[in-house]
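Exercise 3.2. Students should predict the tertiary structure of the chain below and write it as C-alpha coordinates, then compare their answer with the key that follows.

Predict this chain's 3D structure.
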Amino acid sequence: MIRFIYADELHRHPALEDSMFRDRASQFLGRHNWNVTVDGRGWERDEYDDLNPLYLIWQDPDGRHAGSMRALPTTGRTMVNEHFLDLTGGVRIASPLIWECTRFCLAPGASPVVAGGLLLGCIEAAMRFGVQQAVGVFDARMPRIYGRIGHSPEVIGSSGDGPGAISVGIWTVTEEVRQIVSTRSGIPVALTRAWFEASFHAARPTLEAAA
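Answer key:
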Protein backbone atom coordinates (compact mmCIF):
# COMPACT_ATOMS: atom_id res chain seq x y z
CA MET A 1 0.00 0.00 0.00
CA ILE A 2 0.99 3.64 -0.39
CA ARG A 3 1.34 5.91 2.61
CA PHE A 4 1.26 9.70 2.27
CA ILE A 5 3.35 11.04 5.17
CA TYR A 6 4.74 14.48 5.92
CA ALA A 7 8.32 14.59 7.13
CA ASP A 8 7.29 15.85 10.55
CA GLU A 9 5.19 12.71 11.04
CA LEU A 10 7.68 10.20 9.71
CA HIS A 11 9.14 9.47 13.15
CA ARG A 12 5.83 7.81 14.05
CA HIS A 13 6.74 5.04 11.58
CA PRO A 14 10.31 4.12 12.61
CA ALA A 15 10.71 0.95 10.54
CA LEU A 16 9.37 2.71 7.44
CA GLU A 17 11.57 5.77 8.05
CA ASP A 18 14.72 3.75 8.64
CA SER A 19 14.25 1.47 5.65
CA MET A 20 13.40 4.35 3.29
CA PHE A 21 16.52 6.37 4.05
CA ARG A 22 18.68 3.22 4.00
CA ASP A 23 17.25 2.22 0.62
CA ARG A 24 17.93 5.72 -0.67
CA ALA A 25 21.57 5.31 0.38
CA SER A 26 21.71 1.91 -1.31
CA GLN A 27 20.30 3.27 -4.56
CA PHE A 28 21.81 6.72 -4.90
CA LEU A 29 25.25 6.06 -3.44
CA GLY A 30 25.65 2.31 -3.65
CA ARG A 31 24.20 1.59 -7.09
CA HIS A 32 24.43 4.95 -8.87
CA ASN A 33 27.43 6.55 -7.13
CA TRP A 34 25.76 9.94 -6.82
CA ASN A 35 27.40 12.67 -4.80
CA VAL A 36 25.11 12.27 -1.78
CA THR A 37 25.65 12.25 1.97
CA VAL A 38 25.05 9.13 4.07
CA ASP A 39 25.10 9.57 7.84
CA GLY A 40 26.22 7.23 10.61
CA ARG A 41 22.86 5.46 10.61
CA GLY A 42 23.27 4.57 6.96
CA TRP A 43 20.61 7.12 5.93
CA GLU A 44 20.76 9.23 2.78
CA ARG A 45 19.18 12.61 3.52
CA ASP A 46 19.69 16.09 2.14
CA GLU A 47 18.68 19.65 2.97
CA TYR A 48 15.30 19.27 1.23
CA ASP A 49 14.28 16.54 3.64
CA ASP A 50 14.38 19.28 6.30
CA LEU A 51 11.65 21.32 4.53
CA ASN A 52 8.80 19.06 5.64
CA PRO A 53 8.12 17.47 2.23
CA LEU A 54 5.26 15.09 1.62
CA TYR A 55 6.61 11.55 1.15
CA LEU A 56 4.77 8.98 -0.95
CA ILE A 57 5.94 5.62 0.35
CA TRP A 58 5.01 2.13 -0.78
CA GLN A 59 4.89 0.09 2.40
CA ASP A 60 5.32 -3.68 2.25
CA PRO A 61 3.19 -5.96 4.47
CA ASP A 62 6.10 -6.16 6.93
CA GLY A 63 5.95 -2.39 7.41
CA ARG A 64 9.13 -1.61 5.49
CA HIS A 65 9.87 0.60 2.51
CA ALA A 66 9.56 -0.78 -1.03
CA GLY A 67 9.65 2.51 -2.94
CA SER A 68 9.15 6.24 -2.45
CA MET A 69 9.37 9.79 -3.72
CA ARG A 70 9.04 13.20 -2.09
CA ALA A 71 7.07 16.29 -3.10
CA LEU A 72 7.68 19.97 -2.39
CA PRO A 73 5.88 23.09 -3.64
CA THR A 74 7.86 25.01 -6.23
CA THR A 75 6.90 28.26 -4.54
CA GLY A 76 9.53 27.39 -1.93
CA ARG A 77 13.04 25.97 -2.14
CA THR A 78 13.59 23.22 -4.71
CA MET A 79 16.47 21.26 -6.19
CA VAL A 80 15.59 22.34 -9.72
CA ASN A 81 15.73 26.05 -8.91
CA GLU A 82 18.81 25.88 -6.71
CA HIS A 83 20.98 23.35 -8.52
CA PHE A 84 19.73 22.72 -12.06
CA LEU A 85 18.93 26.13 -13.59
CA ASP A 86 21.48 25.33 -16.28
CA LEU A 87 19.04 22.68 -17.53
CA THR A 88 16.06 25.07 -17.59
CA GLY A 89 17.82 27.84 -19.48
CA GLY A 90 18.05 29.87 -16.28
CA VAL A 91 14.26 29.93 -15.89
CA ARG A 92 12.99 29.33 -12.35
CA ILE A 93 10.00 27.02 -12.15
CA ALA A 94 7.76 28.41 -9.42
CA SER A 95 3.98 28.08 -9.29
CA PRO A 96 1.34 27.00 -6.76
CA LEU A 97 0.14 24.64 -9.48
CA ILE A 98 3.48 22.81 -9.81
CA TRP A 99 5.17 20.38 -7.41
CA GLU A 100 8.76 19.25 -7.48
CA CYS A 101 8.96 15.44 -7.15
CA THR A 102 12.39 14.01 -6.41
CA ARG A 103 14.27 11.11 -4.80
CA PHE A 104 12.34 8.43 -6.70
CA CYS A 105 13.67 5.30 -5.04
CA LEU A 106 12.95 1.59 -5.35
CA ALA A 107 14.09 -0.90 -2.73
CA PRO A 108 16.29 -3.77 -3.93
CA GLY A 109 14.01 -6.48 -5.29
CA ALA A 110 10.92 -4.27 -5.33
CA SER A 111 8.00 -5.56 -7.38
CA PRO A 112 7.52 -3.89 -10.80
CA VAL A 113 4.11 -2.69 -9.61
CA VAL A 114 5.73 -0.35 -7.07
CA ALA A 115 6.98 2.17 -9.63
CA GLY A 116 3.58 2.46 -11.26
CA GLY A 117 1.90 2.67 -7.88
CA LEU A 118 4.09 5.58 -6.81
CA LEU A 119 3.32 7.53 -9.95
CA LEU A 120 -0.37 6.80 -9.59
CA GLY A 121 -0.20 7.92 -5.96
CA CYS A 122 1.53 11.13 -7.01
CA ILE A 123 -1.22 11.81 -9.54
CA GLU A 124 -3.88 11.15 -6.89
CA ALA A 125 -2.26 13.51 -4.40
CA ALA A 126 -1.67 16.21 -7.01
CA MET A 127 -5.30 16.14 -8.11
CA ARG A 128 -6.46 16.33 -4.50
CA PHE A 129 -4.23 19.35 -3.84
CA GLY A 130 -5.17 21.09 -7.10
CA VAL A 131 -1.71 20.64 -8.60
CA GLN A 132 -1.55 20.47 -12.41
CA GLN A 133 2.08 19.60 -13.12
CA ALA A 134 5.15 18.06 -11.52
CA VAL A 135 8.78 18.84 -12.26
CA GLY A 136 11.73 16.63 -11.48
CA VAL A 137 15.34 15.74 -12.19
CA PHE A 138 16.08 12.28 -13.51
CA ASP A 139 18.95 10.24 -14.86
CA ALA A 140 19.34 8.18 -18.02
CA ARG A 141 17.76 5.01 -16.62
CA MET A 142 14.42 6.63 -15.82
CA PRO A 143 12.85 7.31 -19.27
CA ARG A 144 12.51 3.56 -19.82
CA ILE A 145 10.71 3.21 -16.49
CA TYR A 146 8.43 6.17 -17.19
CA GLY A 147 7.58 4.76 -20.61
CA ARG A 148 6.70 1.39 -19.13
CA ILE A 149 4.48 3.05 -16.52
CA GLY A 150 2.71 5.08 -19.19
CA HIS A 151 3.57 8.68 -18.32
CA SER A 152 6.76 10.17 -19.75
CA PRO A 153 7.75 13.77 -19.02
CA GLU A 154 8.32 16.61 -21.42
CA VAL A 155 12.08 17.12 -21.25
CA ILE A 156 13.02 20.74 -20.58
CA GLY A 157 16.79 20.31 -20.76
CA SER A 158 19.57 17.74 -20.43
CA SER A 159 23.30 17.53 -19.88
CA GLY A 160 25.78 14.72 -20.37
CA ASP A 161 25.61 11.63 -22.53
CA GLY A 162 24.87 7.96 -22.06
CA PRO A 163 24.37 6.59 -18.54
CA GLY A 164 25.61 9.86 -17.03
CA ALA A 165 22.96 12.05 -18.64
CA ILE A 166 20.82 14.20 -16.34
CA SER A 167 17.54 15.82 -17.38
CA VAL A 168 14.84 18.08 -16.03
CA GLY A 169 11.33 17.18 -17.12
CA ILE A 170 7.76 18.18 -16.44
CA TRP A 171 4.73 15.91 -16.15
CA THR A 172 1.16 17.11 -16.71
CA VAL A 173 -1.51 15.69 -14.39
CA THR A 174 -4.80 14.77 -16.06
CA GLU A 175 -7.58 12.25 -15.58
CA GLU A 176 -6.62 10.61 -18.86
CA VAL A 177 -3.07 10.07 -17.62
CA ARG A 178 -4.37 8.67 -14.35
CA GLN A 179 -6.44 6.09 -16.18
CA ILE A 180 -3.48 5.06 -18.37
CA VAL A 181 -1.16 4.62 -15.39
CA SER A 182 -3.88 2.73 -13.51
CA THR A 183 -4.30 0.32 -16.42
CA ARG A 184 -0.56 -0.17 -16.92
CA SER A 185 0.11 -0.74 -13.22
CA GLY A 186 -2.95 -2.89 -12.57
CA ILE A 187 -3.83 -0.70 -9.58
CA PRO A 188 -7.44 0.58 -9.55
CA VAL A 189 -7.90 4.32 -9.14
CA ALA A 190 -10.34 3.56 -6.33
CA LEU A 191 -7.53 1.87 -4.40
CA THR A 192 -5.16 4.84 -4.56
CA ARG A 193 -8.09 7.04 -3.58
CA ALA A 194 -8.66 4.85 -0.53
CA TRP A 195 -4.95 4.95 0.39
CA PHE A 196 -4.95 8.74 0.18
CA GLU A 197 -8.07 9.06 2.30
CA ALA A 198 -6.65 6.66 4.91
CA SER A 199 -3.53 8.83 5.16
CA PHE A 200 -5.49 12.07 5.45
CA HIS A 201 -8.36 11.00 7.68
CA ALA A 202 -7.54 14.06 9.80
CA ALA A 203 -7.38 17.54 8.30
CA ARG A 204 -3.90 18.69 7.25
CA PRO A 205 -2.73 21.93 5.68
CA THR A 206 -2.04 22.05 1.99
CA LEU A 207 1.46 21.12 0.84
CA GLU A 208 2.07 24.81 0.18
CA ALA A 209 1.26 25.76 3.76
CA ALA A 210 2.98 22.76 5.32
CA ALA A 211 6.29 23.57 3.66
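Discussion points: The first helix runs from residue 14 to 31. The chain has seven helices and seven strands.
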